[in-house]
Predict the structure.
Amino acid sequence: MRRWISLLILLLATSAMATPAFSQAMSNQKESLYKRLGGYDAIAAVTDDLIGRLIADPQLSKFFVGFNNESKTRIRQHFVDFLCHASGGPCAYLGQDMKTAHAGINISEQDWQASVKDLQATLDKFKVPERERSEVLAMISSLKADIVHGQ
Ligand code: HEM
């Protein structure tokens, strides 16, 4: 009898694991940040919103003066590709490394803080859930030493 009860419990547990909700939750655990953020279009939309905020930010606008449209398009595309690649997506990043891209433009600690606020506003706007939000912020923070030079 005990053996039958154990078998029944095992069967019930296995069938619970096979439900779509369970397997969806399990695969969600393993999905890349890229997929959980919503893929390429979502990352492109987040990038456009963020760049719009950086350019309009009185603390940061000075950095984005003097680029022609071609340069703006290139930087924007590199930004999208960088985020796509860094979050585990199927994109190659062919731009400069972060140290080279930001060398000599003297981004200060205050500039950095302003850019993090802009990023948080973008993440708020797109209602990015807590887990993905902290992963994005951690990934960006890991680049700080390469980007901030004028500390
Ligand atoms: C205070 C914050 C930041 C400022 C003021 C800033 C400013 C700039 C500027 C002026 C450029 C153009 C460089 C050039 O082509 O001459 C640039 C390029 C770039 N930035 Fe930033 N940046 C900031 C933070 C970040 C962060 C957090 C990332 C990480 C995703 C990032 C990713 C890039 C990328 C991918 C490029 C393009 C590099 C290339 O075209 O090869 N930046 N940034």
